[in-house]
Amino acid sequence: MITRRGWLQGLALGRVAPNVLVFMTDQESALLPGTARLPNRERLIRRGVQFRNAYCTTPQCSAARSSLLTGLLPHHTGVRTNVDAESLGKALSPDLTTIGHVFRQAGYATSYFGKWHLSRPDKDLTAYGFDHRSAGKDGEVAAAASIWLSGRKGPWLSWVSLLNPHDIYAVRKEMGSTMARPSVRAPASGLVNLAGKPIEQQEYVDRDQGKITASFTPEQWRLYRSYYLDLVEKTDALLGQVLDSVDLDNTIILYTSDHGDQLGEHGLPFKGPFLYDECLRVPLILSAPGRLKPGRRDDFVNSADLAPTLAAAAGLRWPTAVDGQSFLKPLRRDWICAEYYAKQKWVNPIRTIRTREAKLSVYDQTGHREYYDLRGDPGEQQNLAARAPARMSELERQLDRWRPA
Fold it and tell me: What's the mean pLDDT when you consider all of the chain?
């Protein structure tokens, strides 16, 4: 592990430890529903590696963030759902090793800007390894981060966490002032298309947040999806503001989101008791000058891999056991798993395993199953759970080895 003394020696020899910037959005799916102008994202892609098969460990804010910060899966962090008062989640324990702890111990200045959602109160994150803390609206967050970063001598680790496109929840209020984009079509899977799906998804439409959009017409879904892209573009402008504040040649930069959004596919909005790819797949770009050659990769990675990867890229050793792996070199995975515990206080545990050819979701409380042949049905429309018992059994054994029910 690099110590401050070691870093100073490296500085004297001309080997400067890299700075590290994490820029994270909230509820951004990698499967955008149309064309968006993202010049700063493209700027970062030209400098780094774009991972086209990146998945969150769970499509919920607090639980997913716990994986990002610790390299652990939610059932190991103990943060299995959101930590709000109306939810069942518990705060992230400061006794767990976070990326803030690892970098601070190595002599880095550490900062966290924006949405935290892992403990209450959250004005002081020193116990989690971040010595500087600032929150606020997205514009305020980007401005505060830019001020802290501008001209700062390294080494430093800074995590910038925006709220959007999470404001998609305000879609009904904003639809009147939203223009449908020409590139945006209604969801490919139709409107409410839950035939053959686990009853939990229909219950989400009938009695949970799915009620908000249950009567949407195709044109209203176009507005939902267009407004979502508006929000994504807003985050890109703020990304540019932060990138302009750092030395890109001596900064490892990671761009990602905590989880995705359902985008109206299958008639479902936001996120809930389902693990479709729209919710699970997230954008992931890593720029690591001198460590990664720019390009695109298709290996499976998940959000538990991010913290150990950043530590490895900075030459640091993670001091405790983690579930994730560094993806500085390609990962030889042929499957990936995800989990889900509860929607607020509506407990509905789900475990999912996805390969390149198939996907199985097991609803632990009810025994319901979803199985999709992704080669012929990449949109996960036809549940084949009743027709593929042998393949399902094989995948479920893998899933049980990953995490028993």
Answer: 94
Q: How far apart are CA 387 and CA 14, in angstroms?
A: 63
Q: pLDDT tier at 11 (50, 70, 90 boundaries)?
A: very low
CATH number at residue 228: 3.40.720.10
Work out the average pLDDT over 222-236.
Answer: 98
Spatial CA neighbour of 98 closest among 142, 57, 66? 66
Q: Residues for the chain: how many in total?
A: 405
Write out pLDDT tens, residues 312-362: 999 999 999 999 999 999 999 999 999 999 988 889 999 999 999 999 999
Helix (DSSP H) and strand (DSSP E) numbers for the chain: 12, 14
Decide: 237 and 253 in contact? Cβ < 8 Å. no
> Would 65 be classed as within a structural domain?
yes
Q: How many CB atoms lie within 10 A of CB 54?
A: 26
Q: How far is CA 373 from CA 250, 301, 306, 368, 379, in A?
A: 44, 21, 29, 17, 10
